[in-house]
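Notes from the 1:1 (GR / supervisor)

We went over the backlog. Supervisor wanted to see one worked example end to end before approving the batch request, so GR pasted a single chain during the call. The sequence is below; no edits were made to it. Supervisor asked that the structure be written out right there so they could see what the output format looks like.
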Amino acid sequence: MNTLKKAILAATCVGSLVAMAAPAPAQTTLRAVMHSDLKILDPIWTTAYIVRNHGYMIYDTLLAQDEKGEIKPQMVEKYDTSADKKTYTFTLREGLLWHDGKPVTSEDCIASIKRWAVKDSLGQKMMSFVDSIDAVDAKTFTIKLKEPTGLVLLGLSKPSSNVPFMMPKRVADTDPNKQIEDFTGSGPFVFVKDEWKPGDKTVYVKFDKYKPRSEPASGLAGGKVAKVDRVEWRAISDAQQAVNALSKGEIDYVEQPSHDLLPTLKKDPNVNIVEAAKTQYVFRPNTLHKPFDNPKIRHALWYAFNQEDFLMATIGDENYIKPCKALFICDTPFATTKGMDGLLTSNSKKAQELLKEAGYDGTPVVLMHSTDLKALTNLAPVAKSLMEKAGFKVDMQSMDWQTLVARRAKKDPPEAGGWNAFLTAWVAADVMNPISTAYVNASCEKASFGWPCDAQLEKLRDDFARETDPAKQKAIAEAVQLRVIEFTPEIPVGEYVQPAAMRKNVKGYVISPIPVFWNVEITK
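Structure output shown during the call:
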């Protein structure tokens, strides 16, 4: 062997040994405790927030709202509106791929919009104005309207449940009332189904072919840059255990630490507390079955309840609660207390009189009680106590939140596994106007679980959708509130603020109505 060959061989061997000895790049993992365990995976089929959060991990949206609530392009490169405001043209960004490597197309987006619109309150109303949605080419599609409305951009940028997530056409063609079985997305993270263990953990890994926007992240808009290789959602239902794990550095983030543990966390030098948007508690009756098929019986609840009892039993800290009788979140453009005088005052005598007038016959109210979410656990017991003082007979049935979510979709009568009522919470972004507020939708079979059916309320919502003058919209929103009080598809029972907690070495957390994990990194 000549000298040159020996040198090359030696160099090759040394290079190989160095390569073998070099440590592999460290994989960064963010460990988070979310507000609930993930058991359902279809964010269109359900409005459950944990499923919405899952959706933001793996899917993307055509448009998004930034931290100021302004609508920005996301998957869309640009959009144009015709002079008569009846045609919207959307063009997708270059380089968008599904997790299986196939390109995102107009047909995928059209199918996704249609499936979302069947389930979502705002989507349903938007589609009532739509004449057609057609693909121009693989990257361009149009939405043509029968008449102008501001709901197209508002709907496609809807930040919370249900979110118009884009899915491959083969997935989006699934019946909206059936859950999807294919979880291929195009977002910054990939769902690792093989590692999904309900009750233990949910795993996501970075999608290395995701193409983020060039703008800085702002709210739910801008560049979604995955800066960690792996995100693990750990199922820890005990609030104290979750906080202890955060303090010890065993986890990095807690979405909803219990309010009574916040003083302890604030003293921890290794933990940051980040405040999020306001949230509204809501009581939802089922209008299909006795006794709440009678609007007069439902109306008695406005006198039976008071907000302070619900808020102190659940949050307990006056720094984070706000009694607010406005149907639409307080301190927002359509908030009003019109028609609320004398309501939500625990006037049990008045409630009893109304029940007697309505002919209430003692039919038990099957009240579903969520037991595993700290922010919801004490709601049903308070409702039960106040309702019984008002003369209702209440059968409170306890279950975890995911079981409640599955059961509330059933239209069966209570004696056959159905239900009469439950309580939940909505972030401010979901309850700011008559269109996006899901429980105001009274479109019968198309309405959300509870299925209220009221032509008068639907007409008001149509009027709001057509109106562009803010002052006139305000007047319509007031009329909606008055009709909601009379018809009672829902009752707001108070507002609160829910902070998140994270280790101080978690950097880049984006403040938005939804907990998102793009742009987050873990420093040493």
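Supervisor's comment: Residues 278-497 form a domain with the Dipeptide-binding Protein; domain 3 fold (CATH 3.10.105.10).
Batch request approved.
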